[in-house]
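Protein in question passed on here:
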Amino acid sequence: MSTANSGYNTSDLIGVNTDPEVSLTGFGHSVELRRSSNSSLPGADPTSFLSQNYRKFDELRRLLDNNKDSLKLEAMRRIIEMIARGQSCSELFAAVVKNVVSRNTEVRKLVYIYLE
């Protein structure tokens, strides 16, 4: 092992992680964390999360643009649920606002809730 600037040998440290994926050295040195290429966590790739959100928003836009009130109602319920969980749905603003003129009062009410 290498000797750090502070004069101690890193192999003398108790509880040092010897995992090759994590490289920790003495004070004043950078800490390097590397994720293994064969990560077993599902969805560990941050880009997959973003692409899932875009696909979900595209599906919701498609439902909101549909002529059937039942599909619009389902989309609005999903959007309100996402907002209640703290997710941002601002990308759907235009698609939602178009439904203010819907003949279905439930859809209109959910649009008004979205706009609050």
